[in-house]
Design a protein that fits this description.
Length: 382
Amino acid sequence: MKNTADIVIIGGGISGVAIGYFLLKNGAKNVVIIERDYLTAGATGRCGAGIRQQWGTELNCLMSKFSCEFFENAGSHLQYSSDIEFHQGGYLMLISTEKELEQTKKNIAVQNSLGIDSRLLSKAEIKQIAPKVNTESLLAGAFHQRDGHLNPFHTTHAFAQAFKRLGGEIYTDTSVTGITTEGSRIKGVETSGGFIATNCIVNAAGGYSQQIAAMAGVALPLYSERHNILVTEPVERVLSPVLMSFSLNFYCQQVPHGSFVMGRTCDNQPRDLRITADSEFPVHMAKTITAIMPSLNKLRMLRQWAGLYNMSPDKHPIYCEAPELPGFYTAAGYSGRGFMLAPATGQSMAELILGLTPTLPWQRLGISRFEEGNLILEPSVV
């Protein structure tokens, strides 16, 4: 292990490796990533890996559009020899209330103004895209063809390989045990593999970001919350788009090998680091999805699992340098959107750390917005 580094990134999920890649791509040197387990061991390896540009705020639309365009060309950007499996079957939003319909119309106007070609669908048009969907309880739909889903493992390793090819180093099975400071200056990171002297740390530890920040004496207004997901046996392909509904509270996709992956937000989930399975989730999920796709009622579940959403007060990430500790940067609080925003996160954090001209309006994501009351309210989340 190196004993000095210009920049130490804590966290080996998609955000950490993307930040590392964009830092080196934008001129940084001597960057290392520390991961306490293996790459994708946290939220990245437990996510649904959906990629959508259909949001209600300009900020989310711009960041997701940047990320989607990067993923579309990830092979050339990252020079990955395998396939990240970006299936662009679109996101089909199912609308079941008048309030949701009005909001969707507003969302589409924002999206279209930014070059995102989403459109409102009739019930008949929903059937054309997804014939197995039961439209009886629906009013309408919305669709954008360039949305879709990725393989989170291949995507993370593509970033990691590109990071290492550019000169970065990754230390897995290495725990951060402390952060050494002197006054308002960072001196280094204490790890299970030794001490790394540095004056720049990036906290990309996902659900554990609060604990890492506390080691440096930095307080983050975040909490971690358990979210559940399941996968079924593989069957013949019957669904191309990702299905999502805010009013019906679910997302569902059929991945390339034929399994269905699906999730929904459940009430009364623990707000700590537990990722034990919720025994009630499969029952609620089955009722939700079979009402929309009755043909799945005989499908067998293979397994379920849970991961952590790292939540912020306005359900948007924090990209910032700690006011009380220069050189300590945070990229956390994605509230369930960390995977799909990874390229935007990487580019934005690289610009923040290196003092570059912003490509995206990431300045709005500073931690001061909470005290100032400048919350960013996204109307379209599950």
